[in-house]
Specification:
The chain has a 5-stranded antiparallel beta sheet with strand order 2-1-5-4-3. A 5-stranded mixed beta sheet has the order 7-9-10-12-11. It has a two-stranded antiparallel sheet with strand order 6-8. It has about 425 residues and is of the alpha+beta class. The protein starts with a helix and ends in a 5-residue tail after the last strand. The chain is built from 8 helices and 12 strands. Helix 3 packs antiparallel against helix 4 and helix 5 crosses helix 6. The protein is rod-shaped. Strand 1 and strand 2 form a beta hairpin. The protein is about 50% helix and about 20% strand. The longest helix is centred in the middle third of the chain and has 50 residues.
């Protein structure tokens, strides 16, 4: 469409300007020769034989009574000049004449000019004529190019464009067709990647990368739902069994112990649900209410709340460790780490909060059995509980460490396991808050 508009506009401009421009060139050539002869006549220096410049075929000077006073050597048979009369001296008249030399020859087309001039011998008329054959031939070629060549060019451009665009978009169509076949139940299929090395190749590669991420995300979600169902089923089944036994044998039931066991199961359910909800909010990008939080104060509050626990906590906390974040989430991070350390520690837990450069570093260390190097990343996966922990039945849902890492990452920090023996050492690194 754009090419058609450009070609049509160019053709219209060409037809509107080129013919006049070509005729103007011939007209300027004839006029220059005629005025030169008229100037000689006024000065009384008119020769009998006039010298015609190149491409000016006829020059004549005719007196008022019709006598031919001067002429160029070559005359054109049949070219009438005398009937072209200027209306006053120094006036110029132009016309075009067609001359038929013989029946066997083509007609000759001439541009004729007449100029009246006053000479010492009286008024005269200076005539000049130049052939328009070259102009007509050039215009014929232009008309052929415009009226025949332009449609052919447009058809050719349209055809080439159709073929080129179709060839270029064929890989896109294959990608579209493959994408239309991919469903949420089967994300294993991939779109074909053309070997053209252009943007379509990049599109197909990016599409496959996106499908890879979607497949991993869907698999993680399915595994998460399955694990969540399993972890929720255990305390619910235990609670249901206890209540069914108590209901079946009410006289033989220790209702106080049953109530305590039911409360423990309910507490575990509530803890799992709270962690699942917080993980869901973090996955959705919910930042929570954020403000400046002093991690040193949060750590000391944790120590005071845990006084009298099975394993003592030995604090080594700096004066102040301000970070910008959610107080609830950061408190939950420390709670999960200390709960995990309490379950595995043998005699003590070391809690350190320090400022190093522009970072706040929190370290929780226990003297338990430790974590093998090959499992140091697995423990941060959701619902992951290592075999030793399950064997000892120390509780936990396998969500605490995963949630803690998500909280650290949501605060532009990190949670890692450092080398330590005996036991395990968890290191939290967060950006230090500073006034801008």
């Amino acid at each position: 469409m754009i090419a058609a508009v450009v070609f049509i506009a160019t053709a219209a401009i060409t037809l509107a300007t080129v013919p006049d421009n070509l005729r103007s060139i011939v007209q300027a050539r004839v006029e220059l020769a005629v005025r030169r002869v008229a100037a000689e006549a006024r000065a009384g220096n008119l020769p009998r034989v006039l010298e015609a410049p190149s491409r000016v075929h006829v020059l004549q000077v005719v007196a008022a009574d019709g006598r031919l006073l001067s002429s160029s050597p070559g005359l054109v048979r049949g070219l009438r000049l005398a009937d072209l009369k200027p209306s006053w001296p120094d006036a110029v008249r132009f016309t075009e004449r067609t001359v038929s030399r013989s029946p066997d020859e083509h007609e000759a087309h001439y541009l004729v000019m007449a100029l009246a001039a006053q000479t010492p011998q009286g008024p005269v008329t200076v005539y000049g004529a130049s052939s328009l054959t070259d102009v007509d031939r050039a215009l014929n070629w232009i008309y052929v190019l415009v009226f025949i060549g332009t449609p052919l060019v447009l058809v050719s451009v349209a055809g080439i464009t159709w073929i080129t665009v179709g060839s270029a978009l064929r890989p896109v169509e294959r990608i579209r067709a493959e994408m239309a076949e991919i469903t949420g139940q089967d994300l294993s299929r991939r779109v074909p990647v053309p070997d053209t090395g252009d943007e379509i190749t990049d599109l197909a590669t990016t599409t496959n990368d996106t499908l890879d991420r979607l497949e991993r995300s869907a698999e993680t979600q399915r595994r998460f739902v399955a694990d969540a169902s399993h972890e929720l089923r255990s305390p619910i089944s235990a609670l249901r069994t206890q209540l069914e036994v108590a209901h079946a044998y009410p006289d033989e039931t220790d209702w106080r112990a049953t109530g305590e066991q039911a409360l423990a199961a309910a507490d575990r359910l509530a803890g799992i649900i709270d962690e699942l909800l917080m993980l869901a909010r973090l996955d959705a990008g919910a930042a929570g209410e954020r403000r400046v939080v002093d991690l040193a104060r949060v750590a000391m509050d944790q120590v005071r709340r845990r006084e009298g626990n099975r394993v003592p906590i030995i604090p080594d906390v700096c004066a102040a460790a301000p970070v910008y974040g959610s107080l609830m989430q950061l408190d939950r991070l420390l709670t999960n780490l200390l709960d995990n350390a309490t379950r595995h520690a043998a005699t003590r837990i070391d809690l350190e909060v320090a400022v190093a450069g522009d970072k706040v570093i929190v370290t929780v260390t226990d003297d338990g059995d430790g974590i093998p190097p090959q499992d140091r990343e697995r423990v941060f996966e959701r619902f992951t509980r290592l075999a030793p922990a399950r064997a000892k039945d120390k509780g936990g849902s396998g969500l605490g460490l995963a949630l803690s890492r998500e909280i650290a990452m949501a605060h532009c920090g990190s949670l890692t396991l450092a080398d330590h023996s005996p036991g395990a050492r968890f290191v939290v690194t967060l950006p230090l808050y500073g006034e801008p």
